[in-house]
Design a protein that fits this description.
The protein has 76 residues and is mainly α. The protein is built from four helices and no strands. The protein has helices spanning 9-15, 20-31, 37-45, 52-62. α2 (20-31) packs across α3 (37-45). The two termini are 20 Å apart.
């Protein structure tokens, strides 16, 4: 990706070839607790509400640097 390029949380998931359900299952493994598909959906719809720990979790399961994911606002 070009320097400074940022993508939405949804785009990061799609690029990782995961459904919201699959992302929730991977986050559940990452955190060692149940994470629902609805929580993944909530953060995709309102990325500015994503806690830093979840940001790192998404970065890890999607194999993408956290700096590339745009958590600032909802993208359309």
């Amino acid at each position: 990706m070009p320097n400074g390029t940022r993508i939405s949380l949804r785009a990061a998931r799609i690029n990782a070839n995961m459904t919201q359900d699959e992302a929730a299952k991977e986050l559940s493994k990452y955190f060692g607790m149940k994470i629902s598909r609805q929580r993944v959906m909530k953060y995709e719809e309102n990325p500015q509400q994503t806690p830093p720990g979840f940001g790192q979790g998404f970065s890890t399961i999607y194999s993408i640097p956290i700096e590339v994911i745009n958590f600032d606002h909802k993208s359309t």
